[in-house]
Amino acid sequence: MSKTGRAVFLDYRSLDLGDLDMAPLRECFDELMLHDQSTPTQIIERLQGARVAISNKAVIDAAVLAACPELELILVTATGTNNIDLAAARAHGVTVCNCQGYGTPSVAQHTLTLLLALATSLPDYQRDIRAGRWQQSPIFCLLDHPIVELEDKTLGLLGHGELGGAVARLAEAFGMRVLYGQLPGRLPRADRLPLDELLPQIDALTLHCPLTEQTRNLIGARELGLLKPGAFVINTARGGLIDEQALADALRAGKLGGAATDVLTQEPPKDGNPLLAADIPRLIITPHSAWGAREARQRIVSQLAENATSFFAGHTKRQVN
């Protein structure tokens, strides 16, 4: 394979925990520099002389592109490219490629894990055991928290791409009926229900759609009020799809059976978040880890290598700009 100069991975720690085979990517370049993290100032310094930048969340904006004239290719280790100024990249003749579909099994599995944990009140029972309540029980079991069977329940799904389809298949394996919602800005389809029709019919709602201006706060106080009492809400897509204050209020008021989210509007939530309050019942938060199975991260390495080799061979894969 003809190698292609120098590449710099700006935030390598966000991908590899020391458990990945990086050989496919290393073989693409004469030199591959790996940096755990990069500050805005370091980004410009480290990309000097590089033909390829690799980034997960490190921001490559117009100023970076202007200061790095030798840059030809940006490889994003995720599907979302909001950390890249795509217009500026295009103006500077820099190609941007992302990774796609790498985390479908991992995220779908995580989504069902959250749904099952809510349905079985798993966190509540674990908390009771740690507090010694089972040990003090006068009978053999504890049944202090609701347990819901998923069989014959209805799952509402917003976003029916590859990931949504995988979640639907897993839900159907548990005997659930799946209904699909119509997303704003999309052409109407006979098999997609308007949100106001979907929400009152379902026992659980799961989101798998992108965050756009049309989907921001898609699920707010009004929409949460349309759900059945005791319904579950799950978000493994993007923070901002659900109005976080409205969700916190609905849980405190006992209007929902529970909620689970793998995403928040700011990540990490250094400035606080309404959902991090200690008094919110029946809420599970995971730290944007749904995508993080080793197998999924290894697929990213493979796709990065494919994107690099195809670009320098003249037939770019997964180009987004």
From TrEMBL:
SUPFAM superfamilies, alphabetized: Formate/glycerate dehydrogenase catalytic domain-like, NAD(P)-binding Rossmann-fold domains
Residue ranges annotated for the D-isomer specific 2-hydroxyacid dehydrogenase NAD-binding domain, each copy included: 112-290
Family to which the UniProt record says this protein belongs: Belongs to the D-isomer specific 2-hydroxyacid dehydrogenase family.
Protein name per the record: Glycerate dehydrogenase
Entry keyword set: NAD, Oxidoreductase
The enzyme's E.C. designation: 1.1.1.29
UniProt cross-references to Gene3D superfamilies, sorted A to Z: NAD(P)-binding Rossmann-like Domain (3.40.50.720)
Domain (D-isomer specific 2-hydroxyacid dehydrogenase catalytic) ranges: 19-319
Transmembrane segment boundaries: none
Domain of life: Bacteria
Species whose genome carries this gene: Pseudomonas fulva (strain 12-X)
EC category name: oxidoreductase
GO molecular function (one): hydroxypyruvate reductase (NADH) activity
Record-linked InterPro entries: D-iso_2-hydroxyacid_DH_PdxB, D-isomer_2_OHA_DH_cat_dom, D-isomer_DH_CS, D-isomer_DH_NAD-bd, NAD(P)-bd_dom_sf
NCBIfam families tied to this protein: PRK06487.1 (NF005069)
Pfam families in UniProt: 2-Hacid_dh, 2-Hacid_dh_C
CDD domains per the UniProt record, alphabetical: 2-Hacid_dh_4 (cd12162)
